[in-house]
Design brief:
The protein is α/β, with parallel strands linked by helices. About 35% of the residues lie in helices and about 15% in strands.
Length: about 300
């Protein structure tokens, strides 16, 4: 199988390093550490999810690990992602701390959460994390095409994933193409626009045509655009509904109608404005995080 191919069961994509990444995962951004997070992850695993996405910045890695242990699902069946907080200095040391919180020996994917301080500086530590077996695959998040090119030019191990905000409303065509040319899998976060896209008239019209929920339509659009997708929810029924996206197909007209919602002009940037150079304060304005240098906020 080659990069980007779908596995025979239709549920995972092949990464450039040969590992397989489930197409659907549960994201836990802004889910409080504790019972709410544990319940959401347990429900997801009971409903067949085999991909969990957390981060050092989220402050809920311990709850994700606890839910996995309590679920009884074998560790090797679940693809787990965490992300290096670039407000810190050592990706290896932070990966070790993440593994302690998760109570795991390794994560399946370790991402640089955003390119604070420049795209390349953290990459040597990310490579060491993989070489030491702390992470099976390494990648980036919120990296524009130029950031991705800089990392690939500077490192000996290329990133295999770029996790970015992606949906029909944020259809970053040029960034998607740049990643494909370099063998990097794009993973969509906020595919539902933190719920805002669910009331969009076009999305609702397509949902009525195909007899599905607006959320299922948005997630299916991601699948048909060859993305990996990580919707977030803490509600059992919505987690269940979000998983029901592999038994229907959007027509070419449906896809075209949704494509037309794009507000990014097909950009190759991860965000429409430069939010990273201003450091953590500017990042927090668009990506509120509970964990920052110096402890919880």
């Amino acid at each position: 199988m080659t990069v980007g191919d779908v596995t025979s069961d239709g549920r995972a994509r092949v990464l450039a390093d040969g590992h397989q990444m489930p197409i659907l995962g549960l994201g836990v951004w802004q889910v409080p550490d504790g019972e709410a997070c544990v319940k959401a992850v347990r429900w997801a695993l009971e409903l067949g999810y085999r991909h969990l996405d957390t981060a050092q910045a989220y402050g809920n890695e311990a709850s994700v690990g606890r839910a996995l242990r309590e679920s009884g699902v074998p560790r090797e069946e679940v693809f787990i992602t965490t992300k290096f907080h670039p407000g810190r200095t050592d990706p290896v040391a932070e990966a070790e701390q993440s593994l302690r919180r998760l109570c795991l020996d390794y994560v399946d994917l370790y991402l640089v959460h955003w390119p604070q301080g420049g795209p390349e500086w953290a990459w040597p530590g990310m490579q060491r994390s993989r070489e030491r077996g702390l992470a099976r695959s390494v990648g980036v998040s919120n990296f524009s095409a130029n950031d991705l090119a800089a990392v690939m030019a500077a490192g000996s191990i290329p990133p295999v994933v770029n996790q970015v905000q992606f949906s029909p409303v944020h259809y970053r065509r040029a960034l998607l193409e740049a990643c494909r040319r370099r063998g990097v899998q794009v993973e969509a976060y906020s595919p539902l626009g933190t719920g805002q896209h669910l009331t969009n008239g076009t999305v609702r019209q397509v949902a009525r045509r195909v007899g599905r929920t607006p959320a299922q339509v948005l997630l299916r659009w991601c699948v048909q655009r060859a993305l990996v997708v990580i919707p977030k929810s803490i509600h059992e029924e919505r987690i269940r509904q979000n998983a029901q996206i592999f038994d229907f197909t959007l027509s070419p007209q449906d896809m075209a109608d949704l494509d037309a919602l794009d507000r990014t002009k097909g950009t190759d940037r991860a965000h429409e404005r430069n939010v990273w150079r201003g450091g953590l304060r500017r990042v927090r304005a668009i990506m509120p995080i509970p964990w920052a240098p110096g402890g919880r906020q």
